[in-house]
Amino acid sequence: MRLHPTRATFHVALAGAAVASMGVALRLGTVVAFGGAMILAVAVGRAFALAAVTRLRAAGFEMVWSTTKRVLRVARGETVTFGAELRNRSSDEMRGICVRAIASSMLETTVEPETVDLLPNSRLEVKVSIHAKRVGRWGVHGMALEVRGTPAGGEALYEVPLMFANPFGIEVFPRSLHALVTSPRGGRSRRAAEAGRAAPALGEGDEIRELRDHVPGDPFKRIAWKASARRGRLIVRDMEREERDVVWLVLDASVELWAGPEGRAPLDDMVDEVAALAARHLSRGDRVGLAVLASRPRTWLSPASGAPHAVKIAAALASAASMIDVDRCELDEWEIAQRVSEHARPLDPRGLQDIPKSNLDLLAARAQALRARAPFAPRVPHAPTTREQQLRHYIAAFGIEVPPRVEGEREKTHATMAGALDMIFNDKKARASVLYVFSPAPAPTSEILTALRRLRARRVDVRWSLPPFERAVPAPTDREGAPTRVREVVEEAVWLRAIAARARAEKILRRLGVRPRVTERRIAG
């Protein structure tokens, strides 16, 4: 437990040292004794503060969330408020300052009030507000405050930071899919998917297309017996089915597309656009498939419809922001182990004191056991060894963010996308009618162009959305006058280069008959 001196403590100690020094210089024993007494008072105050806080924690000073849910689903850009209860079970009064939530940087958190006064054997509820900046699964790891004396004790000499480890999960969905996923289920409220557009296609349906004479090969179940009796010959019913689109959404989730401020990166806008299109087509009754690609296929959902499929799409888009896989993360195994150790220490009953720092196998086993307290149940991350998989699985389960890899995935992602487009072309069960691709434009010699030509030859409506790179930096028109700093010069150069690259990309796509467009911004930064 660490104790930090307050400003008053520092002033008292400094004054005591000055008085003692003056007494030594003047050879006055009483002055030296007075200065030494001031320094001794600071040391005694530290011992009393440590004993008081130790007694406070031992008596049962704790924090619990007021909600019983372990995971809270919110929409990106939304602010949600819930409560947390501080409980003082000791017989001492305490004052806590700088009350704050320990959470991912993808969540903006505020706590009211920031200063709390707890009487003996009392409880106090504080309000925690969380603003979700980016789609994903992020953790609220607990709360922290600093104990400073008592409400009536005046200025305290020491502050003691305390941390309450109580994991809580925030699952951030795109706004459009969040509304669809959280809408009431069952009954007539879920029958909107039946509103498709009727087409002159034979099949099993509810609408009669025509009555005609029976021909060899017609199934007996289609015979209209009453109409046949009236006409004196066999008459069959041709039914009309509703034909709907088979829509594929292909999203490039390479790590370099997350570059930029949280909520304003190119991939933030692309995820929102994919979610909006998925919600729109699902509400029409279309079947929607989703492919999230990077250097490897990250998610592959075959075309389907309905509310359960909307939940799967929302979950897949939430995991698109994850950097925990070894080929997307900048941290190696030892650095991941260090983060696991720091997070697991307050959760472990023994504080990991029985695990040597160099024993990663024992740490991975302990992390595997503690994962039962995690709010999320993600897939097992990609890693070369089982031990590293367990450590990275712990990080993902508690929503601990990790830095993305500095090297990009562009070349590998385009190779993966070419294979994905070939799989969509070769799918005989659900032939695609509309294809949306969200990615930077391929190179003129890329294999993707060959796959696009094959899809266009089959009359698939291909639409390519380019990431809005220029929105991640201020446009030159947003500044007055010429750039004056190095940062402004670099931002203007990046902005101009993004505009030029977009123009070249649109030219390449138009030659293939693909409709290019720039991803819309759905939520302001």
Automatic annotation (TrEMBL):
<feature type="domain" description="DUF58">
    <location>
        <begin position="210"/>
        <end position="320"/>
    </location>
</feature>
<dbReference type="Pfam" id="PF01882">
    <property type="entry name" value="DUF58"/>
</dbReference>
<dbReference type="InterPro" id="IPR002881">
    <property type="entry name" value="DUF58"/>
</dbReference>
<keyword id="KW-1133">Transmembrane helix</keyword>
<protein>
    <submittedName>
        <fullName>DUF58 domain-containing protein</fullName>
    </submittedName>
</protein>
<keyword id="KW-0472">Membrane</keyword>
<feature type="transmembrane region" description="Helical">
    <location>
        <begin position="33"/>
        <end position="53"/>
    </location>
</feature>
<keyword id="KW-0812">Transmembrane</keyword>
